[in-house]
Design a protein that fits this description.
Blueprint: H1 4-8, E1 17-18, E2 29-31, E3 34-38, H2 43-55, E4 64-67, E5 72-76, E6 81-82, H3 94-111, E7 133-135, E8 144-147, E9 150-153, E10 160-162, H4 164-175, H5 184-201, H6 205-231, H7 237-242, H8 245-258, H9 260-268
Antiparallel strand pairs: 1-2, 2-3, 3-5, 4-5, 6-8, 7-10, 8-9
Helix pairs in contact: 3-5, 4-6, 5-9, 6-8, 6-9
This protein binds adenosine-5'-triphosphate and magnesium ion.
Length: 269
């Protein structure tokens, strides 16, 4: 319904600078040094987590600044470039990849001391097989801002109880990347990058053994999640499924399974 008062209000899109559209969230804008994103029932818990991370010295996440007058979450704007899809070359060398491993390790170490508020509501899309801390659940180059002032993980909507290995398995998929679309030479590169990132994270041998079966399982969980969303007509999952994301995750899961020995060597030798 349109009326005199709503006509006086400026439409959302004309306020602030629209940020590049991701796959899931629309209407994200930058206003000054802040980002405004649609809030959800999970936002108070996510902001409590972000506050905790900063309080214990982890700076690789946006600062939370509450909810604005339009009901959107307010976060600090992280200056820099998002690594995927346009700047993946910045993660080509081992040093850069190791920095990602350290970042994820620091994040998990910082999150381990977090006690969620008693009424915390998380957006649990894909339940982790076990959960002893709150993890990000979408640690990937499309959520990594590479900036001169630091590297920052953005897009915390999916944070939820999980395990270090569950989050690392997902991160390895995105940062190696463990994509089915590689030639035979690419498999060796993938195995090397898995070794570098897992090494920088500092997984011990038992954790490396535990990680191996999770790599394909984590990718397959994405396929199943999108398939279910599509079958039930839930957006944006149905759209992503129609665009081929579900198929791509399935192909990657099968690829990971097919080359399991390469990764066993990379992680255990
Ligand atoms: N705190 C931030 N600092 C800087 N840029 C940001 C921040 N939050 C979002 N952006 C910009 O907005 C884009 C989309 O944000 P975001 O990743 O939160 O959306 P999404 O649709 O949920 O993404 P995805 O496709 O990963 O699910 C990012 O790629 C980035 O360019
Ligand atoms: Mg994102």
């Amino acid at each position: 319904m349109d009326g005199p008062s709503s006509r006086r209000r400026r439409p959302l899109s004309s306020e602030g600078t629209p940020l590049p559209q991701g796959n899931v969230t629309s209407g994200i804008v930058r206003i000054g040094d802040t980002v405004r994103r649609p809030a959800g029932p999970w936002t108070p818990a996510v902001h409590a987590l972000l506050r905790h991370l900063h309080a214990v010295g982890f700076s690789g996440a946006p600062q939370p600044h509450g909810i604005d007058e339009r009901g959107r979450e307010v976060l600090s704007f992280a200056p820099g470039v998002v690594a995927w899809p346009d700047h993946f070359e910045l993660l080509a060398d081992d040093r850069a990849l190791a920095r990602v491993g350290h970042l994820v390790r620091d994040l998990h170490d910082a999150a381990a001391g977090f006690t969620p508020p008693p009424d915390a509501q998380w957006q649990v899309g894909i339940p982790a097989p076990d959960g002893d801390l709150i993890v990000h659940n979408d640690v990937a180059p499309w959520n990594l801002v590479i900036g001169d002032e630091g590297w920052v993980l953005i897009d915390w909507d999916g944070a939820a109880p999980g395990s270090r290995l569950w989050d690392v398995a997902y991160a390895l998929h995105g940062f190696a990347p463990l994509s089915a679309a590689v030639g035979p030479d690419g498999v060796a590169v993938q195995a090397h990058r898995v070794r570098v990132l897992a090494g920088a994270y500092g997984l011990d041998e038992a954790e490396r053994r535990g990680l191996l079966p999770l790599l394909a399982r984590r990718a397959m969980s994405m396929h199943q999640f999108l398939a279910e969303g599509a079958a039930n007509g839930v957006e944006p999952w149905a759209r992503l499924w129609a665009d081929g994301h579900g198929e791509s995750w399935r192909a990657d899961a099968e690829h990971i399974e097919r080359h399991r020995t390469d990764r066993e060597r990379a992680l255990l030798d």
